[in-house]
Design brief:
about 210 residues, 3-stranded mixed β-sheet, 9 helices, two-stranded parallel sheet, 5 strands, mainly alpha, globular
Amino acid sequence: MGAVQGFCNMLGKLLVDMKAAPDAPTHLAVVFDHSERTFRNELYADYKAHRPPAPEDLIPQFPLVREATKAFGVPCLELPGFEADDLIAGYCCHVRDMGGEVVIVSSDKDLMQLVGERVSMLDTMKNVRIGRAEVMEKFGVPPEKVVDVQALCGDSVDNVPGAPGIGIKTASALINEYGDLDALLARASEIKQDKRRATLIDFRGPDSASHASW
């Protein structure tokens, strides 16, 4: 039951810290993945296909974590067909657009594209607040262009291929030079480095506007 204990310790500390904060949050919710299959699997059949099944001793702990969350008096949110990230993004954008402030308690790089005015992240493991500057330091681009860099690099964790041989440093330099992924792919023939130019032309596919963000 190590996962349940670790989760409870983290959530308990977060609640204590929240109450002690001078700008204490007014709302808190814990968001879960409802199931492994989401709409992304319909778009890309190999999405996360390389991941092994969850360890047998971990599976019984999933419902216990949800029960523990409710025991703390914190709402549990999940929705069939969507990942937790999708719900976090939806709530985040809604609250932000209504003039509220959002703190996403996570260190997940995929959520960094949401960081901006009135939106930040909190890495509780390192006790670090992640804002625009921290995203720039990690990706070399502002939050709104993180998805462009990730589309170029791919994501081995999710089994999403990118352009071979292009890492974050190269991707961020290209995005900063050309403005965004669509412009880069449209002007790929202008790139001076032969190998890089050939890679982008060969792997851009028929629809250069196929990437998506929240």
